[in-house]
Design goal:
By secondary structure, the chain is of the alpha+beta class. Helices cover 54% and strands 11% of the residues. The strands form five sheets. It has a five-stranded mixed β-sheet, sandwiched between helices. The chain has a three-stranded antiparallel β-sheet with strand order 4-14-11. The protein is globular and about 90 Å long.
Length: 533
């Protein structure tokens, strides 16, 4: 009898499971059907930008956008035009492409678009309170002014030697460069992005971040940084708080890092030390109302700068080295430029300097071209806080044919699309630094804004950036303030590598990987080097 009872019980539970399963399948089929019907012509809203066709509600276009955002943008531009909406994990994202689309979003009115509302859930747990997107925009503008003040030409000038020194020391001690150290004529291989990440944090800490951070890198700072960085991923962007170990590690690391910088500030105040880094500069800064930055604000601005510069710069130097490894003629031209500019009679080279590097057209064009093909940030987002009317055709606007991007949507600018648009650039996908040194039409177009009107949002005059197809540092009130430091860091690191070695890719430039917040070379990609004799 017990046997029969258990059989009946099994049957009952099985039939319950089947009922649930059938219910779930019906629910999915019904929601898919309703979702598809809503997108058919009679039900489409004429007033809103076209919606990218998708089968599954909530998931929408998440997979195709996430796998290759550029392919997604170009494919959909050809179907829907410059302005369209897609679904990203339940959120409605409206894209505006081309120079006019970039302008619409990056120079959007404060009353219409908000960066704080788009980013604060990602950045505040990492940077900490009272800075960047955790404060009103007017306060962020003041904080950006303070940082710009710390990036004075005088400080930048001093950083060149330090960056070159850290890079050389790295080459002389890291295991991947044993063939360099032993002058092995066969050369060796290195994991490019990992190497560049290490050199970037070493050089940024030696210069901007200060000696305490540089010393801490050999100790606990590196672990804290690692845990904090683990909280700066697309998952954190989509889900600000999940009960996962990485979220917990992020919060612990933020607290420790904040205390670490706070202690530096207190110690320096007590000792009255004189330094030439960003902490020293921030300690001198006062808001318009006369209030000085407090220790926490300084700590959190320093964390924000660390995070803002680290992946952007290490990705850019990695891409630059990969392209150089693929173009031996450009490496040779770069080396000859170094010899011409810095060569001594005895055949050795003078140390790099800020002013002379700024006068190295090939070096600068290599960086510029790298940022054209690989701007580290592929999608710049804002939340729409009041309806935005937008012409159906951005290139031929007409008042009667306009859409409304509704409040609550997100908007995405994608300057990387106009930077590789074949309608604008010759051989758009080709790495050709010479396009920036010869007087080409596209160069004129890209640099038009530099000669045009400027605007000051509170952190110094910047070009309006309204018509350039080339904007790797963004535009408008949220434009990057780290550009000069980034150029200096990148030029010094690249020039130091080129002075010391030749480079070669095995199997070409690796494909782009979009799985993190920044566009990186496919994980594990390596470069071959040979030491110059
Ligand atoms: C190759 C290197 C870099 C690239 C391509 C880059 C790119 C960008 C872009 C596209 C933006 C605009 C973001 C938006 O509009 O939402 C931005 C903003 C910013 N960047 Fe950079 N960046 C780089 C390096 C740096 C460095 C080294 C620092 C710090 C020293 C830095 C600090 C900032 C800050 C503070 C903002 C302002 C954020 C805002 O106002 O909302 N960046 N950057």
């Amino acid at each position: 009898m017990p046997c029969v009872q258990s059989l009946v019980a099994d049957f009952n539970s099985l039939s319950t499971i089947y009922q649930y399963l059938i219910g779930a399948v019906c629910f999915v089929v019904l929601s898919v059907a309703l979702n598809v019907i809503k997108q058919l012509p009679p039900f489409k809203s004429r007033n809103s930008p076209p919606l990218v066709f998708h089968v599954f509600p909530f998931i929408g276009s998440t997979i195709s956008y996430g796998m290759d955002p550029y392919k997604f943008m170009f494919d959909n531009r050809s179907k829907y035009g410059d302005v369209f909406t897609f679904i990203l994990l339940g959120r409605r994202m409206t894209v505006a492409l081309g120079p006019k689309g970039n302008d619409l979003i990056l120079n959007g009115k404060l009353s219409q678009v908000s960066a704080e509302e788009a980013y604060t859930h990602l950045t505040t747990p990492v940077f900490g309170k009272d800075v960047v997107y955790d404060v009103p925009n007017s306060v962020l503008m003041e904080q950006k002014k303070f940082v710009k003040f710390g990036l004075s030409a005088e400080n930048l000038r001093m950083y060149v030697d330090m960056i070159a020194d850290e890079t050389l020391k790295f080459l002389n001690r890291d295991n991947a460069f044993s063939a360099y150290q032993n002058k092995d004529p066969n050369g060796g291989d290195f994991h490019c992005f990992q190497t560049m990440s290490e050199i970037t944090i070493l050089t940024a800490s030696r210069t901007l971040q200060g000696k305490e951070v540089r010393d801490g890198l050999d100790k606990s700072f590196a672990d804290m940084y690692h845990d904090l960085d683990g909280g700066f991923t697309p998952l954190n962007f989509m889900f600000p708080n999940l009960p996962l170990p990485s979220y917990k590690r992020r919060d612990i690391a933020q607290q420790k890092m904040s205390d670490f910088y706070g202690d530096i500030v207190r110690r320096r105040r007590a000792e009255g030390s004189v330094d030439y880094d960003m902490i020293a500069s921030l300690m001198e800064c006062k808001y318009k109302d006369g209030r000085a930055l407090n220790d926490r604000e300084i700590a959190h601005i320093m964390i924000a700068l660390l995070m803002a510069g680290q992946h952007t710069s290490s990705a850019t130097s990695s891409w630059a080295l990969f392209h150089l490894g693929d173009k031996p003629d450009v490496v040779e031209a770069l080396y000859q430029e170094q010899v011409e500019k810095f060569g001594r009679e005895d055949g050795t080279l003078n140390p790099l300097t800020l002013e002379e590097m700024r006068e190295c057209p090939i070096l600068n064009s290599v960086i510029k071209e790298t940022l054209r093909l690989h701007p580290p940030i592929h999608s710049i987002m804002r939340k729409v806080i009041s309806d935005i009317p937008v012409p159906q055709s951005l290139s031929a606007p007409s008042e009667k044919d306009s859409y409304v991007i509704p409040q609550g949507n997100f908007v995405i600018a994608c300057p990387g699309v106009s930077a590789v648009d074949p309608l604008i650039w010759n051989d758009a996908q080709e790495f050709a630094p010479s396009r920036w040194t010869t007087q080409s039409q596209e160069q004129e177009l890209a640099e038009k804004d530099d000669k045009g009107e400027t605007v000051d949002y509170g952190f110094g005059a910047i070009s309006k950036g309204t018509s350039s197809p080339y904007q790797p540092f963004g535009a408008g009130r949220h434009r990057c303030i780290g550009e000069q430091f980034a150029y200096l860091q990148l030029s010094t690191i690249i020039a130091t590598f080129i002075r010391e070695m030749t480079l070669e890719t095995k199997g070409g430039v690796p494909p782009q990987d979009y799985t993190s917040m920044i566009v990186l070379p496919q994980p594990g990609s390596r470069l071959h080097y040979k030491r110059r004799t």
